[in-house]
Design goal:
Radius of gyration: 14 Å
Distance between the termini: 51 Å
Shape: flat
Low-confidence stretches: none
Helix content: over 70%
Length: 78
Amino acid sequence: MILHILIVILVLLSFAAIRMNNLFYAVITLGVVEVLLAASFYIMAAPDIAITQAAVSSGLATFIFLLALAKTRKVEEK
């Protein structure tokens, strides 16, 4: 039951991230989606995949997206 609720929240947040006009909020929302996806893997009894998902997708990918966003904003301001 909890897994079904998580999946619905994942889908809703994913659509919300797509529809956002502010790229910073979209990246943060995708980071939250990745954390919830890691939690769903943990609930499905796959803790190794959950840890990898949390570390790589939530942590590293979100950091890279935010870094790229910061670099492109500097170019746009010139």
